[in-house]
Amino acid sequence: MTIYYSLTFMLLAAEMVTFCILVAPLPYSIKKRLFHFLSESKIVAKVAYGLKISFIFIGILFVDAVQRMFRVTAEADLAKNNKQGVVQDIRTDTGLAARKFYAQRNTYLTGFCLFLSLVLARTFYIILELIRTQEEYAKLKKATTAGSRADGAQSQDQAKEIASLKKQLEEATSKTRDYDILKKQAAQNNAEYDRLATELIELQGIKSNKRDD
């Protein structure tokens, strides 16, 4: 295996390990810190930029491996058709089989590396969006709980104020009732006083008349 295919295999292994870490059932706090670090770190951003360039070269290798695979397969089929009824050369067949195997291996290696890179990127952004959604939900839930508590406290204050107003109204009504009673009694006392004063004046007038006679 050449150096660039060896590096491609190492990158594929690293992608597999990274994918296992991303989908592992980690605690929410650890996963949140991990994804925030991966999405906000400048070092990770530089590494991701370098990987994007590497995937461009891997894409070129994939195209080249596919072309070689088709070419070797066509040569093997052609050699097989030309040697019908002729004693086959084991070395030639072994060489063609080996070339076909290597071409297919390189095609699968580069193809799976590119495919897993797309899966990793999509999985990362899906999980990151899920974490952000959970954070927004937690904030909304906290705000709703605080608002409910504030509304409850406000309702209690309003209830206390209403009770105080009712008490004041009852006291004012009681005072008004007492005032009406006192006013009625005063009117009755005034009328009785007028009646007694009138009788007294009449009695004094009768006595004066008797004296004059």
How many domains would you count in the coordinates?
1
* Unreliable parts: none
**Total strand count, please?**
0
Q: Helix tally? A: 4
CA radius of gyration is 52 Å
What is the rounded distance between the termini?
163 Å
Structural class: mainly alpha
Name the average pLDDT: 78
Shape descriptor: rod-shaped
Q: What is the helical fraction, as a range of percent? A: over 70%
Oligomer: single chain
Major sheet size, sense and barrel closure: none
Helices and strands, in N-to-C order? HHHH
Strand content: under 5%
Structural features, described:
InterPro entries: BAP29/BAP31 (IPR008417), BAP29/BAP31_N (IPR040463), Bap31/Bap29_C (IPR041672). One of its GO terms (cellular component) is endoplasmic reticulum membrane. There is one protein chain. By secondary structure, the protein is an all-alpha fold. The chain has one domain (3-158). The chain is built from four helices and no strands. The chain has helices at 3-23, 28-40, 42-82, 90-212. 6% of the residues are buried. The model has no long low-confidence stretch (mean pLDDT 78).
